[in-house]
Automatic annotation (TrEMBL):
The chain crosses the membrane at residues 12-35, 96-120, 132-154, 183-203. GO terms for biological process: single fertilization. This is LHPL2 protein. One of its GO terms (cellular component) is membrane. It is found in: Membrane. It comes from Probosciger aterrimus. It comes from the Eukaryota.
Length: 228
C-alpha cells in the first residue's frame, strides 16, 4: 500500500532539487557566460526620439552560443540576435569548452533525473530496500563533482580565438582581458553550491520521513501523512 508522506524537510529538499536542476540547465543554455568589450557607437546608434547616442553595445558569448547585434540598413536600426555559433559539438570554440560542455551536461542530466524522481518520493521512500533519499543525495553529490570540474575547466578556454575576438588580445587562459563574467557563470556556480546543499539535506529528508511519528501514523492506518 502506498503511503503519501509529506514533511517540511522532504518538501524543501524536493523543491531545491527542482530549482537546482532548472538553474543549471538555464545557465548551460545561456549565452551570457562572457560579456564582451563594448562596441563603439555609430551614427546608427541614435535614439530617434531624443537624438542622443545609445550606450555602446556589449556582445555576449556562451559555451556554444552567442548574442550579437545585427544591422538593418534599410530601416536604420539594429537588433540583437542570439543563437548557437556552433552547429555541432566539434565547432565549439575551445577543447576546454568542449570538456566543460560534457561535464556540465552529465551533471545536469543527473540533476534532472533526481528532480524527476524527487516528485515521487512523497509516495515511494525506498527502492530495493535502499532509501531513495540517500540514493538521490549520492547522485546529487556526484553531479556536483561533474559541475565543479566543468566550471574549473571553463576559464582555461578564455584564450581561444573566439574568446579573444570578444575580449581583446589580452585575453588568455584564466584571464578575461576586456570581458567580464556574465550572470550565467555565477548562476552555474550558485547552482553547484546548492547541489551539494541538496546532497547533504537529503539525509534530513530521509530522517523526517522515517521518524517515529511517521511510523505511528502508518500504524494508525493513515495513507496521507503530513508533518511539520
Amino acid at each position: 500500500m502506498c503511503h503519501v508522506i509529506v514533511t517540511c524537510r522532504s518538501m524543501l529538499w524536493t523543491l531545491l532539487s527542482i530549482v537546482v536542476a532548472f538553474a543549471e540547465l538555464i545557465a548551460f543554455m545561456s549565452a551570457d557566460w562572457l560579456i564582451g568589450k563594448a562596441k563603439p557607437s555609430s551614427s546608427e546608434d541614435v535614439d530617434n526620439r531624443t537624438g542622443a547616442s545609445q550606450e555602446p553595445y556589449r556582445p555576449t558569448l556562451g559555451i556554444y552560443g552567442r548574442c550579437t547585434r545585427i544591422s538593418h540598413m534599410q530601416f536604420s536600426r539594429r537588433d540583437t540576435l542570439c543563437g548557437p555559433y556552433a552547429e555541432n559539438f566539434n565547432e565549439i570554440a575551445s577543447g576546454f569548452w568542449q570538456a566543460t560542455a560534457i561535464f556540465l551536461a552529465v551533471g545536469i542530466m543527473i540533476l534532472c533525473a533526481v528532480a524527476f524522481v524527487s516528485v515521487f518520493t512523497m509516495c515511494v521512500q525506498s527502492i530495493m530496500k535502499k532509501s531513495i533519499f540517500n540514493v538521490c543525495g549520492l547522485l546529487q553529490g556526484i553531479a556536483g563533482l561533474f559541475l565543479i570540474l566543468g566550471l574549473i575547466i571553463y576559464p582555461a578556454g578564455w584564450g581561444c580565438q573566439k574568446a579573444i575576438s570578444y575580449c581583446g588580445p589580452y585575453a588568455s587562459a584564466y584571464k578575461l582581458g576586456d570581458c567580464s563574467v556574465g550572470w550565467a557563470f555565477y548562476t552555474a556556480i550558485g547552482g553547484t553550491i546548492l547541489t551539494f546543499i541538496c546532497a547533504v539535506f537529503s539525509a534530513q529528508a530521509e530522517i523526517a520521513t522515517s521518524s517515529d511519528k511517521v511510523q505511528e501514523e502508518i500504524e494508525e492506518g493513515k495513507n496521507l501523512i503530513c508533518l511539520l
